[in-house]
Automatic annotation (TrEMBL):
Superkingdom, natural source: Eukaryota
Localization terms from the record: Cell membrane
One example of a Gene Ontology biological process annotation: fungal-type cell wall organization
Region of interest (Disordered), residue spans: 364-415
EC number(s) on file: 2.4.1.-
InterPro entries in the cross-refs: GH, Glucanosyltransferase
Positions with biased composition (Low complexity): 387-415
Keyword Transferase attributed: yes
Entry protein name: 1,3-beta-glucanosyltransferase
Main location: membrane
Membrane topology: Lipid-anchor; GPI-anchor
The keyword ATP-binding appears for this protein: no
Alphabetic keyword roster: Disulfide bond, Glycoprotein, GPI-anchor, Lipoprotein, Membrane, Signal, Transferase
């Protein structure tokens, strides 16, 4: 009797363990492309999803309602700008994984984002970034993390670029030292002509892989109305990205002037002009607000709502049944339904990727790009001074007052480490963790059998 009870528990325990192993396949960055574990190339068909300023991934019931509509669109990725690292995200992340939807999440908060007006990188910022990574690295459908969103918005903000890279360097070092999966670390840039393509190249040009991004993304709203590949300037974006050594994609797009949005740019991004270079696009945004970028709403605007009503912020309901905004929702659905780039197979691409040469670092110029690529990156605790010098300290980041939950270029919406010399090595490959779990399960099984 005891033996049969013990043996009957084995299949259940093995099934639970197998469920962990057989979870949604992870995404990795190889060369200039993203790949699923089976070697198929991954293209983002994403939505910017920030229902509430603090964290949209804590309401499982709402996530499930929204995911039904996302699946209808053909969505396979969402981008979230701000999360509470201490909250429970299991329900939403599991529901997203079940629908084949991956997460790109920003690591900063309203109080820890890197600012071009006061560039610095300190322990407080690093600690907050680490907390978000600690929380989301455990989910297989976390496809990437971002160390900043539109930090640089003018040519004068160029001195902040090394601080963005310093954050990426330290997060990557922390990720690796903790034994986490190699979740790609990237940045989301504002589409500023004065910074293009210098910033893009600077963040990927280092010969030291630990001091460059794993991916680069762009918030671009150039294709508006009845435009084209050349009229919109997408041909120039493509030219700038040709032979780029890391994955690049649109982290925000979807110009809404003139209305309605037809999303015609998607046919270029996923078509023959750009799909060999770009890895897809994230549409701004899920929720309809004052800026008229939403794909769904939860009812008409509600002005002067009582402060006690937590379901309403800035006059817009943020919970309930998602109703498509017409005709934008259907227009995007129609576009994505016809666009299925196959890309390349990883086994074939590896031969090419190993031969990819680095991109040339942009030279510092008087009155232009002001970053010397040969200068060392800032260290943890370093603050930039206007005279070009830097100091070591722990100055705080004042942050900005958010006027919305996301960040669309041109809409004035605010959204948005680890010292490698002090790294603590933590053993923890996936195999080692599974082995440890197996031993613990077997021990537990034996104890239960003995007790029975």
């Amino acid at each position: 009797m005891l033996s049969s009870l013990a043996l009957s528990a084995v299949p259940l325990l093995l099934a639970l363990q197998a469920a962990t192993v057989a979870a949604i396949p992870t995404i990795s960055a190889v060369g200039s492309k993203f790949f699923y574990e089976n070697g198929t190339q991954y293209y983002l068909k994403g939505i910017a999803y920030q229902l509430t300023p603090d964290d949209p991934l804590v309401d499982t019931a709402q996530c499930k309602r929204d995911i039904v509509r996302m699946a209808e669109l053909g969505t396979n990725a969402i981008r979230v700008y701000h999360v509470d690292a201490k909250a429970d995200h299991e329900g939403c992340m599991t529901a997203l994984a079940d629908a084949g939807i991956y997460l790109f999440v920003d690591l900063d908060t309203f109080n820890t984002q890197i600012e071009q007006t006061d560039p610095h990188w300190n322990q407080t910022q690093f600690d907050r970034f680490k907390e978000v990574l600690d929380e989301f690295q455990k989910y297989h459908n976390t496809a990437g993390v971002l160390v900043g969103n539109e930090v640089l918005t003018t040519a004068e903000g160029a001195p902040a670029a090394p601080y963005v890279l310093a954050a990426a360097r330290d997060i990557k070092a922390y990720r690796d030292h903790k034994g986490y999966r190699e979740i790609p670390v990237g940045y989301s840039a504002a589409d500023i002509a004065d910074l293009r393509p210098m910033l893009q190249n600077y963040l990927a040009c280092s010969s030291n892989s630990s001091e460059r991004l794993d991916f680069y993304s762009l918030n671009a709203y150039e294709w508006c109305g009845d435009s084209s590949y050349t009229v919109s300037g997408y041909n120039q974006l493509q030219k700038n990205a040709t032979d780029y050594p890391i994955p690049i994609f649109f982290s925000e797009t979807g110009c809404n002037t003139p209305a309605p949005r037809t999303f015609a740019d998607q046919s270029a991004i996923f078509g023959s002009e750009m799909s060999n270079t770009w890895s897809g696009a994230i549409i701004y945004e899920w929720l309809e607000e004052t800026n008229d970028y939403g794909l769904v709403s939860y009812g008409p605007s509600v002005q002067n709502a009582p402060a006690t009503n937590t379901l309403i912020e800035d006059g817009f309901t943020r919970q309930g049944t998602p109703t498509p905004v017409s005709p934008d929702f259907d227009n995007l659905k129609s576009q994505w339904a016809t666009l299925h780039p196959t890309g390349v197979v990883l086994s074939d691409y590896r031969k090419f990727a190993s031969a990819i040469s680095g991109i040339e670092c942009p030279a510092s110029t008087s009155g232009g790009w002001s970053v010397d690529p040969s200068s060392p990156l800032p260290t943890l605790g370093q603050t930039y001074k206007q005279n070009g010098s830097s100091t070591t300290g722990t100055a705080g980041n004042a942050g900005r007052t958010p006027t919305g939950t996301g960040s669309a270029s041109g809409t004035a919406i605010a959204t948005g480490k680890h010292n490698t010399g002090n790294a603590v090595m933590v053993a923890g490959s996936t195999t080692e963790r599974l082995l440890t779990g197996s031993i613990l399960l077997c021990t537990l099984l034996g104890a239960v059998a003995f007790w029975l």
